[in-house]
Amino acid sequence: MSTTYxxxxxxxxxxxxxxxxxxxxxxxxxxxxGREPLVMLTAYTVRMAQLLDPHCDLLLVGDSLGQVIYxxxxxxxxxxxxxxxxxxxxxRGSYHAVVVIDMPFGSYETSPEVAFxxxxxxxxxxxxxxxxxxxxxxxxxxxxxxVERGIPVMGHIGLTPQAVNILGGYGARGRxxxxxxxxxxxxxxxxxxxxxxxxxxxxVEPIAVEATRTIDCPTIGIGASxxxxxxxxxxxxxxGMFDRTPRFVKRFDDLAGRISAAVQTYADEVRSRAFPGPxxxxxxxx
Length: 286
Prior knowledge:
It is a single chain. The protein is α/β, with parallel strands linked by helices. The chain has one domain (about 25-240): TIM Barrel (Alpha-Beta Barrel), CATH 3.20.20.60. Helix content is about 35%, strand content about 15%. It has an eight-stranded parallel β-barrel, surrounded by five helices. It is globular.
């Protein structure tokens, strides 16, 4: 069991009781290449990690928390401290899935040495198994540097949200021959540098399929192809928590609508004094 401190399960609403199973390992994830697809979702809290853990092979503490949790305009303002706090929560709430934590913008690009310091901090503070960083061939030396020093790395190519200012938006990548060639070159470079997996985001499908076919590590698609070795989505998107969702997201529920309806019922009962009722109040002892 990975945890940074013990929670009193008698008093806490979040009661991460250890399950009788071993957590998946990085080698086990890498060995899934070309086999049963890997299931990956984002998680940012203990309770969500508990709910997702039995169904997922990997939980990603994504820097998407900047937008999803904090209402920031992009992932750019996210800090190491924010990632560490949420990463530790997800590790405490999970016992099965490999927990991967995003390295935020500005924490790894300067040099491999700076990247190592940031990654070591995140793994020490959270107990996560691996880090994820964005970028292609330019980041391959950093990936290699981390892996050679015992830090598992997941890559991220194609549409890289931390580079939104250079990319000019969140449109799909790989529509031109030059862009397609670069994405494939990036995939090979990060794979050869030792990444145990690569997220391929927002690329035209044939490029994702070709990258999956030509590299040794598993690919995790998001807006890519069902032929990738796995899939990842932002949990709040797939649960329908926001009015707008990207094209590549399938809403598996309308949780926002159900929450709104439940809160409306609560408000009505409070205003009519129907709540709390006898079942929710305490009578004096005889």
